């Protein structure tokens, strides 16, 4: 799947009935990543018993699915059915049963193939289905401007001795995902969270706020942006306290230089709700 920019799903949905008790905690907007490296961004908006799911597969390219949800939380995991689904071209898509679990601001959904049987557990299948997707509740975002606006999109660069590792950075809005690939192209590390910049200091400051439950321990870094080149020096994380911010760029692996990826052609229109791309 191809790189992309996150397109918000805040457009108004049709008027909906009051949500059933099981759907009440699911109201609002959710975000998930799909594809082999999380390059596809999925935004799910639930309003009453209606949903709108936007699948962004490339910069400026998105596909929308709409329909209704039926939820039953009398078991664990609960049941969440995608019904009356209409695809991007107005085509009807068969109902798809799913299992789900809500844990705070994290919604995990395991969906069967359209027209398939209800999954037994929250587990991905060996093939395309059942598909497992983890959504995170979207928080109200501030406007993106300045350097952060200039950083939007996909970046990559060589890392480590002899450049044997490959880094990939995706920034959409204030959300970021960092992936490190080994010499064989396999993912060896990944992290996602929010980015916060301070352009008033020298060198300019960049805070990485993880979404792994440790938002009180951001990675404090510095950065330099020059057109299509982005240089970042990461602070070294400490278990017993906050990460100290570097005072200058280093010559070791803490400093990485990334280049903006060239824009690529759009991919296919994605998959029905719940599928993993």
Structure in words:
With 277 residues, the protein is mainly beta. It folds into two domains: 24-137, Lipocalin, CATH 2.40.128; 146-260, Beta Barrel (Lipocalin), CATH 2.40.128.50. Helices cover 2% and strands 46% of the residues. The chain has one helix and 17 strands. An eight-stranded antiparallel beta barrel has the order 1-2-3-4-5-7-8-9. Strand 10 and strand 11 (165-172) form a beta hairpin. It comes from Tautonia sociabilis. This is TIGR03067 domain-containing protein. Residues 256-277 are annotated as: Disordered.
- Report Rg: 20 Å
How big a fraction of the residues is strand? over 45%
Number of helices: 1
Give the SSE order as H and E letters: EEEEEEEEEHEEEEEEEE
Q: Ranges with pLDDT <50 over ≥5 residues?
A: 1-19, 264-269
Q: State the distance separating the first and last CA atoms.
A: 8 Å
Shape: elongated
CATH arch. level architecture of the largest domain: Beta Barrel
Give me some keywords for this one:
277 residues; disordered N terminus; 2 domains; Lipocalin; TIGR03067 domain-containing protein
In brief, what are we looking at here?
The chain is an all-beta fold and 277 residues long. The protein has one helix at residues 146-150, and strands spanning 28-34, 40-47, 50-58, 61-72, 78-86, 92-93, 98-103, 106-111, 131-137, 153-159, 165-172, 175-181, 187-198, 204-210, 219-226, 229-234, 255-260.
Can you lay out the helices and strands and say which pair or pack?
Layout: E1 28-34, E2 40-47, E3 50-58, E4 61-72, E5 78-86, E6 92-93, E7 98-103, E8 106-111, E9 131-137, H1 146-150, E10 153-159, E11 165-172, E12 175-181, E13 187-198, E14 204-210, E15 219-226, E16 229-234, E17 255-260
Antiparallel strand pairs: 1-2, 1-9, 2-3, 3-4, 4-5, 5-6, 5-7, 7-8, 8-9, 10-11, 10-17, 11-12, 12-13, 13-14, 14-15, 15-16, 16-17
């Amino acid at each position: 799947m191809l790189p992309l920019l996150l397109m918000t799903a805040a457009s108004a949905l049709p008027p909906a009935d009051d949500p059933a008790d099981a759907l009440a905690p699911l109201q609002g907007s959710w975000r998930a990543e799909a594809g082999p490296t999380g390059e596809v961004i999925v935004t799910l908006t639930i309003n009453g018993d209606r949903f709108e799911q936007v699948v962004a597969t490339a910069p400026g390219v998105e596909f929308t699915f709409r329909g209704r949800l039926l939820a039953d939380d009398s078991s664990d995991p609960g049941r969440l059915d995608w019904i009356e689904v209409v695809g991007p071209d107005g085509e009807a898509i068969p109902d798809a049963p799913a299992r789900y679990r809500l844990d705070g601001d994290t919604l995990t959904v395991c969906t069967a193939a359209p027209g398939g049987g209800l999954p037994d557990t929250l587990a991905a299948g060996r093939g395309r289905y059942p598909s497992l997707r983890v959504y995170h509740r979207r928080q109200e975002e501030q406007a993106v401007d300045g350097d952060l606006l200039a950083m939007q999109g996909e970046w990559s660069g060589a890392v480590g001795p002899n450049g044997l590792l490959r880094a990939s950075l995706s920034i959409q809005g204030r959300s970021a995902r960092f992936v490190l690939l080994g010499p064989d192209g396999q993912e060896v590390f990944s992290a996602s969270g929010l980015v916060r910049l301070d352009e008033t200091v020298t060198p300019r400051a960049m805070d990485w706020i993880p979404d792994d439950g440790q938002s009180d321990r951001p990675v404090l870094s510095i950065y330099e942006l020059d057109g299509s080149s982005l240089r970042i020096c990461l602070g070294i994380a400490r278990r017993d306290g906050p990460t100290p911010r570097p005072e200058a760029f280093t010559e070791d692996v803490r400093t990485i230089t990334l280049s903006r990826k060239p824009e690529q052609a759009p991919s296919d229109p994605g998959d029905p709700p719940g599928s993993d791309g």
